[in-house]
Design a protein that fits this description.
This protein has 140 residues and is of the alpha+beta class. The protein contains three helices and five strands; from the N terminus they run ααβαββββ. It has a five-stranded antiparallel beta sheet.
Length: 140
Amino acid sequence: MKKYYKIIIGVSILLIAGFILMPESEEKPEPVAVVSASTDTERINYFALHGWKAEELFSKDITVPSEFSESYELFAQIQDKQKLPLRNYKGKDAVLYTYRITNYSPEDRNLLAELIVCDNIAVSSIIYSEDDSDYILSVQ
């Protein structure tokens, strides 16, 4: 019986030592795009770099939610794919800029673009149909 406990203790010590000495796998964070958006020209140029011609309609002050609802989480996933840092700005004050896209109208849809700017950095962007909110295009 003593031999059995010695074996269990020995194996346990080896397993613990293995976990302690095992190198940690470092998850490298996805690179995040830093897009300056402090001026109207920079914001318009952001869309132009992706082939969109945009004209500003309006802007309004907002706060990025500190906790994302299910629908906002879906929106955040789009931003993740575009490498925009929306998640880094939870709970922060921002400005939402809304633009009309003037050079593309699939199926005669009116396209709008939105850009959320925090600390003069574009943290999210999306293009969608004014007529059908389920019709969403990636900026990139």
